[in-house]
Amino acid sequence: MKVKGFKRRPGQADRRAATRAVAIRLFASLCAVGLVVAFAIAATLPVDMDLGAMLLAMDPSTVASLHQFTERVSGDVIWHRVVLPFLLRPDWLLPLMAGVVAGGVAISLSQIGAGHHSTRRSG
Description:
Layout: H1 12-44, H2 51-58, H3 62-73, H4 76-87, H5 93-111
Helix pairs in contact: 1-5
């Protein structure tokens, strides 16, 4: 589709492809890091430890600082409905979720412009 008065600069498509390739590699790397960290946490820490207990073991003031920050920025409702449920989940779940989301973004970015070719034959 051509638009009157709009000219593409030479090399613009190449720059977009290069930027997309860098973004794909970045998100694929974040996916790998998230999955490795989740496995390392699950393999080394006690099975029944949740994220809040892990943060308390690392630094006792972390949870209190997180609570104060959440109350200051968004209020007490976000603390009880969003942050607190995550702190009660297993400690390996948050890095695993981040890795899976980053992997999904990497796959989605790699599919842009790839085109969809149907395997169904017509006729």
